[in-house]
Amino acid sequence: MASGNVFDEFKWRGLVFDFTEGLPDLLATEKITAYIGFDPSSDSLQVGNLLALMGLARLQRFGHTPIAVAGGGTGMIGDPSGKTSERQFLPSEQVEANVAAIKLQLARFLDFDAKDNAALIVNNADWLLKITMMEFLRDVGKHFTINYMTAKDSVKTRLEREEGISYTEFSYMLLQAYDFLRLFEDHHCVLQAGGSDQWGNITAGVELIRRKLGERVHGLVYPLVLSADGTKLGKTEQGTVWLDAHKTSPYRFYQFWLNQTDAVVIDYLKFFTWLDQMAIEDLSQKLAEHPERREAQRKLAQEMTRMTHGEAALAQAEQAAEVLFGGEIVGLGADDIADIFADVPSSEVPRSRFEGAGLPLADLLTETGVTRSKAEARRLLQSGGVYVNNGRVEGDDATVALNDAIEGRFVILRRGKKQYHLVRLTG
Q: Of 231, 223, 303, 300, whose CA–CA distance to 268 is shortest?
C-alpha cells in the first residue's frame, strides 16, 4: 500500500482537472470509498478508459476502496456527454454479456481480494431496472429544475444542434445522480471520479445527495486525454485500440504505445503507468538528450503491455517488434505474422505450388515482384541478399517448400535489410 496523500499523487501526475471543495483534506485524513462508471456498449474496454481505471487503481493503492460500476442500466440509455447524436440502443442481453466481459478486464487492474479495501464491481441495472417511473420522478426528478439540467454542457451542446436531444438521453444525468445516491446509501461511497466531460453528471449526484439526505459527497474529474494530433486517445486509422487481446493483439497494443510522439509520451507515462516521479523524470531527461533512442516510448509500451496482457504477451510483442529488423521468427504463429506484416506488400500464391520438391525461390522472387527478373533473383541469391522467414538463403538453386510456410499460411521474403514481402498461401 502506498504512503502519503493520493490527491498529491494525482496532482504531480497532471490528473486533476476539477474537484469539489474539501476533497484534498478528505483524502488526506480519511480512507474513503470511491467509484467510477464504465459504459458497457462493447464487450471490451479500450485505451480511452484507462485513465479512469488507473484512477481507481491508484485510489486503492493508497488505501481507499474502489467501486467499478458497470452501466448495465444506463448503458441501455446512453450518455449524451461528448456525443453529437443519439446512440443506438443495445438489446438487454447484449448489455449483460458486455458487462460480464468487462468485469474480467477490470480484474487486471483492481485487487478484488485485498484484506481491508477489496475492490467491488456492481451493475447499476440491479437498481435502475427495478425503480418505477413514479418512484423516480418523486424521489429524484423533483430535486432538479429544467433550468439546472439545461445549463450543463453535455445537454446545452446538444440543444444547440438541429437534431436536439431526446427525453431519454436528457434523463441520463438524473440516472447517474441516482447511481451516486444508491452507492452512498449502500456502500457509503463519497467520491465519484471520471473524465472532465462527466463533471455535470457528477455534480448532479453531489447535489441530489445534499438535497435528499443533507450529506456532503465529492467529485473529481481528470483531463480528457487526446493524442498528439488532437483526436480521441485510442482512435487510430486501424480503428479502436481495445484491451481485449482478441480485438487488438498484444503486438498492436504494444505498437500503439511505442508509436506515441515525444510531445505526449512523458504525460502518458504519468497518466497510465505506475512509474514514480524519479523514474519518469529520468526518462524525460533521456528523451531530451537522445530522442532518437525512443527510450521513453519503449518503456511506455513495455509497462502498458505488461500490465494489460502479462509478461508472456509482452515478451512475444517485443519479439514480434524485432522481426521487422531481422529478428527471430521462431515461436511466432501465423496470426502474429499477419499482424506484424499487415502493412507490407503481399502476394497470394496457390499452396499446391509449394508441394513436393517446392517452388524455386528465384521464381517466387520474380513472380511476387521482389526482383524484376529471374536473372536478378539468381544474382541476389548468389550474393546472399535474400532471406526466407528472416533466415539467409545460400545458393541460387534454393526452393521454398510447404514446410517452410508458417503454420501453412505465410512465407516471408526479405531482400537486403528492410525490403519485406509477405506471401500468402491460398487454396
A: 300
Among residues 319, 346, 345, 314, the alpha carbon closest in space to that of 332 is found at 319
Q: How far is CA 120 from CA 70, 107, 176, 270, 358, in A?
A: 11, 10, 18, 25, 59
**pLDDT tens per residue, range 4-18:** 799 999 999 999 999
**Residues 412, 340: contact at Cβ < 8 Å?**
no
Measured CA to CA in angstroms, residue 407 lies from 130, 198, 327, 331, 365 at distances of: 52, 48, 18, 11, 21
* Spatial CA neighbour of 124 closest among 189, 60, 170: 189
Predicted structure pTM score = 0.85
**Of 48, 13, 90, which Cα lies nearest the Cα of 198?**
48
Could you tell me the three cell numbers for 148?
439546472
d(CA 204, CA 179): 11
Q: Are 140 and 208 in contact, with CB atoms under 8 Å apart?
A: yes
Q: Quick one: how far is CA 228 from the chain centroid? A: 16
- Helix (H) / strand (E) element for 404: namely none
- Confidence at residue 84, expressed as pLDDT on a 0 to 100 scale: 45
In the DSSP assignment, the letter for residue 84 is S
Query: Which of these, 162, 157, 64, lies nearest to 114 by C-alpha position?
Result: 64
Task: Give the CA distances from residue 296 to residues 217, 227, 324, 331, in Å, rounded to whole numbers and listed in that order.
Answer: 38, 16, 20, 27
Find out whether 49 and 191 touch, Cβ atoms under 8 Å: no
pLDDT for residue 235: 65
Q: Are 31 and 117 in contact (CB under 8 A)?
A: yes
